[in-house]
Amino acid sequence: MTREDYDRYAAAFNARDYDAVYDFYAPGAHLTFFGVDLATREAFRDFYGFLHDHVEETLTIERFAASAELVALEGVIRIEARKDLTAEALAAQGLDQFFPIRKGEVQELRQYIHYHVTNGLFTGVSCALMD
Fold it and tell me: Where is the SnoaL-like domain positioned along the sequence (predicted)?
């Protein structure tokens, strides 16, 4: 996985092209972060479709490292609410671990994102917040 490959992935994510994003994942891949486990294309589409209906989310990459088996990056996830995302709406999706956000509010979250790679495709991803 090269930086150019990852930039195509990030551009597809920022464009909300969920199928193009998920094409970077190998069959059986698991995306695990903050209590969410997305193990299918449908689960991926459902989660991000719900989230991005409420918020605009973009990734800015600050540090990037890659090999044939690993992509690791440090960056800022910027979340701006397009409409209120209430505790009730989150709970209805089983996302009690996420915080509500009101229309117009902005959150910037510094994250480590860690991808395992096999044959040029992601087989797993996990994230951690940092200060």
Answer: 7-123
